[in-house]
Amino acid sequence: MPGLQRLLIPCVTVLLALAATAAQAGLGNPVAQLRDDQSRLGARDISVQRAAAFDRHAFQSSNGVRIRAFAGRDGQVFAVTFDGPAMPDLKVLLGTRYAEYASAVRPSPSTHKVYTYASGTLELNIVKLPRGFTGSAWVPGAVPAGVNVSALQ
What is the β-pairing status of strands 114-118 and 66-72? Predict the structure, then answer.
């Protein structure tokens, strides 16, 4: 039995980690899962604005960070933007793309104020301001035709 326990514990741990990842919305996931993310972030002031090629879901986290998630007509979140006094939970915002970000991020000196990451599947910009942070992330292949990601706010 002890051998079986040693085998089961890592298996259960992996399954729980996969279930937690699947429950997160963020980039590349269905907009229907945004409610879970809003709840995880202690969101309030939730609003939805419809544009020609996407819907803009805006809310504010419990720590004062304003977050906007952009979902295309296919119902998938293709971009997120944020600004506020603290760094939002990137694990929630980046969803399934978080692992790519986490493996790419490198420690930098505390004076480093801009972080940019670009690959074929994720683009991310974070700026440390004197009183907080601002940033954006998007999935290049999922951006609807005619949408300028630098104009998303």
Answer: unpaired
